[in-house]
Design goal:
Layout lengths: L2 H9 L3 H31 L4 H10 L8 H23 L3
Length: 93
């Protein structure tokens, strides 16, 4: 018997409903965490997105040497947010 089945039985909730709602809560939590980290990076460099960050590189206003990790992290976080949005739509949220 799976954990979902055990917990749904204890709570008297349909296992599929419990699983779906649990996934939604988890995904929304991760999205909040990612958004907080995105805001932190964006404030640090005065940008709103990885695209704006990249523009700073192209214009020569920002040196890649000490900022590239933040740029790649921002780009990764933005892509994860998009994946979470797709997953939430799949879950009907």
């Amino acid at each position: 018997m799976s954990v979902i089945s055990k917990v749904s039985g204890l709570l008297g909730i349909d296992a599929n409903t419990l699983e779906k709602e649990s996934l939604k809560v988890y995904l929304k939590k991760k999205m909040r965490e990612y958004n907080a980290e995105i805001l932190e990076i964006c404030r640090k460099y005065g940008v709103k997105s990885a695209k704006e960050f990249e523009e700073l590189y192209k214009s020569g206003k920002l040196n890649e040497e000490n900022t590239l990790d933040d740029f790649f992290r921002l780009d990764y976080l933005e892509s994860q947010i998009e994946k979470i949005k797709v997953a939430l739509r799949e879950l009907g949220d």
